[in-house]
Specification:
Distance between the termini: 61 Å
Number of helices: 4
Organism: Candidatus Viridilinea halotolerans
Mean pLDDT: 85
Shape: elongated
Number of strands: 4
CATH architecture: Ribbon
Order of helices and strands: EEHEEHHH
GO molecular function, one term: DNA binding
Pfam family, one: MazE_antitoxin
CATH topology: Pemi-like Protein 1, Chain: D
Low-confidence stretches: none
Radius of gyration: 24 Å
Protein name: AbrB/MazE/SpoVT family DNA-binding domain-containing protein
Strand content: 15-25%
Largest sheet: 2 strands, antiparallel
Keywords: DNA-binding
């Protein structure tokens, strides 16, 4: 079921904005961070994507499969420069 609401642009400083009725925000679950995308002659609003969403679960599954080891073991050992030049406090 779609809901259509007609509204107007309002001036906000040097920009313009729209007031979005709470019923629409609740219907799509928008909160603070949103993304705006132009698609043809439409402006699409959606909840901001969380690029790392689900990473914890993926890391947990990798650990269960013993698939969480470094691919380059040399990167782990560091170099003589790392050992001699860094000062740890």
């Amino acid at each position: 079921m779609s809901t259509i609401v007609k509204t107007r642009l309002v001036k906000i400083g040097n920009s313009q904005g729209i007031r979005i009725p709470k019923v629409l925000l609740d219907q799509v679950g928008l909160t603070n961070d949103i993304e705006l995308e132009v698609q043809g002659d439409q402006l699409v609003l959606r909840a901001a994507r969380r690029p790392r969403a689900g990473w914890n679960e993926q890391f947990r599954q990798m650990a269960e499969r013993d698939d969480d080891r470094l691919l380059d073991q040399h990167a782990r050992s560091g170099s003589s420069w790392d050992a001699e030049e860094w000062t740890w406090e």
